Amino acid sequence: MPISVQDFSKKLTLQLLELYPEQEASNLVEWLLEYHIGIRRADSFRSFDEEDLPAKLYQDLERLKTGEPIQYILGKAPFYGREFAVTRDTLIPRNETEELVHLIIKENRAPGLRILDIGTGTGCIPISLFLEMDHPTVHGLDFSKPALQVAKDNARDLGARVSFELCDILSQMPAFANVDILVSNPPYVLESDKSKMHQNVLAHEPWSALFVPDEDPLLFYRVIAEKGKQLLVPHGKIYFEIHESQGRAVKELLENLGYTNARVVQDLNGKNRMCMAMLS
User: Where on this chain does substrate bind (predicted)?
Assistant: First the structure.
């Protein structure tokens, strides 16, 4: 028997309400329907027979009901106007990181800049910068071989010439030097805050890209900023994504290491989300 898209969407949304608020559940269903059968919200009054729908749609719905993020289910996530492949080896790109990318683009208009992204994951930061800026030379590094493969695949599929390197920034020095811009969205969530996080993040996203020890919350910022003094050219810039509670601490860290013009930048929600400075 035919059912309208609107009624079918409501039917699926009800099955997700134990895990998600209604609006989020509705958005997830919309994403699922668009991916599997090309139907969007504007098609709400169209009708179809449920038995004609692919079995994979229902299989993916069951995965959603376990709390698995839809980006991992579908294998892709939107970022800065493009779609990036994602796997369980990479963090899911987030809106806050789009704001970091936008800040860098807005503040650096010169052509031919050399850029290094540390902890690249999907490669969403360096790939977006390559595609949006004026003929930059862009590099990305990560300690995870599987993550680097995802980044390389994304660069190939999106037509971005980005060089990638396997490197553990805590114990190794990157091969790329004399860069104009150093950027990183490093792990910054305290291990003690795990209990406050949504279960679908804890159960599915890589912990190594999320958490830092409580006794050293600025570990990655300190190491990257210290090595940045050797990697950056004079007057080169360093950009970090930060936890909203760390703005003052990261700014002071950069100033104590000799960086100048350090400042904290708020995101669109008014939260301290980025910190940048210049090498003197």
Answer: 185-188
Shortest CA distance to 181 belongs to which of 137, 132, 127, 241? 137
Model pTM score: 0.91
How many domains would you assign to the chain? Answer: 2
Which of 4-13, 18-27, 35-44 has the least mean pLDDT? 35-44
Does residue 123 have a known ligand-binding role? yes
66 is in an annotated binding site: no
- Whether residues 109 and 194 fall in one domain: yes
| Cα–Cα dist 8/24, whole Å | 16
Band (76; pLDDT cuts 50, 70, 90) = very high
Q: Are residues 47 and 121 in the same domain?
A: no
Q: Check whether 120 is labelled as a binding-site residue.
A: yes
Instruction: Indicate whether 209 pLDDT > 90.
Output: no
Read off the tokens for 3: 């059912």
> Domain holding 134: CATH number?
3.40.50.150
Burial degree of 220 (CB within 10 A; 0-12, 13-18, 19+): buried
Q: Give the E-state strand segments of 119-228 in sequence order.
A: 137-142, 162-166, 179-184, 189-190, 211-212
Is 140 labelled as part of a ligand binding site? no
**234 shares its domain with 128:** yes
Token pair listed for 153: 């695949």
259 marked among binding-site residues = no
